[in-house]
């Protein structure tokens, strides 16, 4: 099934990275051209990802290596969404439960170790940084008044050593212990889409989300009033799409076909 | 407020340990006498506790040291409830996520490390045994078909170094990740009371629970059709009791006053 439409009133794009621009360690055919087209035509866009183990600079270097020419400020990930959320709230003190080099995205934030001096506990996919001690530290901050910011609330992912827990289960643990509900700043939360739109200075109705996941990308965007274009790369599966009640504004074989819609 | 009643049709007792028989490192006044009275009168009883960091033998030694003469088989804790549950289910292979010497209560169970060969993931208050690796191990067992047995689902407790997470948050994490609901074999679950009654061979309506917690002890017992007697020791607080809609069958100053009800 192929749906083609002429997009009207589109002034900007949100583009998922994994499965739309890249798959594993390669660029998806046509993806580099699509990015060049958007730049040539002057469309603002943000490349979005729920990755919470890599900072923006590392993600940018990876895309560079795959031949993409994407300005660093066109990358928008949950850690950047969290920083934007904190700055807008006027509160700047955080306790981080993350791994990898994600802490580099928080250089403009005060990282605190005293549990009584924390405004936000920020929890991402923290891998081996999840210990009883680190969970207790996060828990005590919340009991002392901090709010919880979840960089994502995914359940699990496939690591090389087998299925592995994402941030979601540990966010859920903190919510259960404290009775507080986390602010989720990753896809598919409304908060994430709102912060990404704010970063471009665009409204929901003039923006289109391009993704390979019918639920989090397309369904999530639509729940925020953003139109969705589904691509048949990455995790796309015809049977899942056919069974879903979510209908994207368009379905493309690859993101490269975006040229047919915006010329 | 004092309520005294003559108990009719009582053939056995469930007695909370912490706050009813002991407080910190001392025996509560009259508690040793109450236990002697039950033994003299030939009432079956089980001393119950949600402690999941100590095996039965260690709990028994502690009560011995405080001058109680309680047969070991009159102690009934969540690990013993879990073993009883497993044996009744006919499935014997477990993955343990516990700490302390609780594993000694599972000597009659096959402890497996291969995630494809596990019937039950058993999770208690595991303290520093909670790591990303141990949580992933438990998670993978459940994804391979194991069910989750929670020794308790409490939120937190006061450790010497500050508020510390109990088993509950990590049970919740596994439930969120896997979509499975844990079988809770600790107070105040119906499963716990049912297993404790089965251990004595008594029905709910001929049994009385004695506890200091109006919610988990009295409310929990009543939800299982067991009458509850509240004692004014341990965590009892008059204002909490007055505000609660839960009405025990009797309220006693200490468990020692049980002699007024059963003579």
Outline the structure in words.
The structure is a homodimer of 263-residue chains. In chain A, α4 packs across α5 (167-178). In chain A, the strands form four sheets. In chain A, strands 5-4-1-13-14-15 form a six-stranded parallel beta sheet. The model of chain A has no long low-confidence stretch (mean pLDDT 94). Chain A contains nine helices and 15 strands. Chain A has 263 residues and is an alpha/beta fold. The first copy, chain A, has helices at 31-41, 56-65, 78-89, 132-143, 167-178, 190-200, 214-223, 238-243, 259-262; strands spanning 12-16, 22-23, 26-27, 45-48, 75-76, 93-97, 110-111, 120-123, 147-150, 156-159, 162-165, 183-184, 207-211, 227-231, 250-252. Chain A has two domains: 12-50 and 188-262, Rossmann fold (3-Layer(aba) Sandwich); 82-184, Rossmann fold (3-Layer(aba) Sandwich). Chain A binds chain B through residues 126-133, 135-136, 139-140, 143, 155-156, 162-165, 168-170, 172-177, and chain B through 126-133, 135-136, 139-140, 143, 155-156, 162-165, 168-170, 172-177.
